Amino acid sequence: MDDNKTLTVKQAADRLGISKDAVRKRLERGTLAGEKDKSGRWQVFLSSHKSDQSEFVSRELYEQVKNERDYLRQELERKDHILMSLTKRIPELETIEHKKTRERIPWYKKLFKS
């Protein structure tokens, strides 16, 4: 079988897992090989080797992003827990501060203790 395949934009999009518009943009930028046929439609050249490699890289990136997402979710949960515990302590700290302000003794009374 031939190593290079000619595909339509839709077939290339399905194979690469991207939208048809993304395939067209890549063709226009030259990051994807292809040419327009006589009717003005794009024909995409995909090597089966590159497609397999691209699929492997896509899966690897997917796993990396998934792991990072899971890590960030755990961090958010941890920080939410910290915030909740600190928020619960606010009334307790306010009462302590209130008691301190009531118990303050003026400096001159401390100095001239009898």
Could you please describe the fold and organization of this structure?
It is a single chain. With 114 residues, the chain is mostly helical. It is built from four helices and three strands, in the order βααββαα. It has helices at 9-16, 20-29, 48-102, 107-111; strands spanning 4-7, 34-36, 42-47. A hairpin with a 5-residue loop joins strand 2 and strand 3.
Gist of the model:
By secondary structure, the chain is mostly helical. Helices cover 68% and strands 11% of the residues. It has four helices and three strands; from the N terminus they run βααββαα.
List the helices and strands and how they pair.
Elements: E1 4-7, H1 9-16, H2 20-29, E2 34-36, E3 42-47, H3 48-102, H4 107-111
Antiparallel strand pairs: 1-3, 2-3
Helix pairs in contact: 1-2
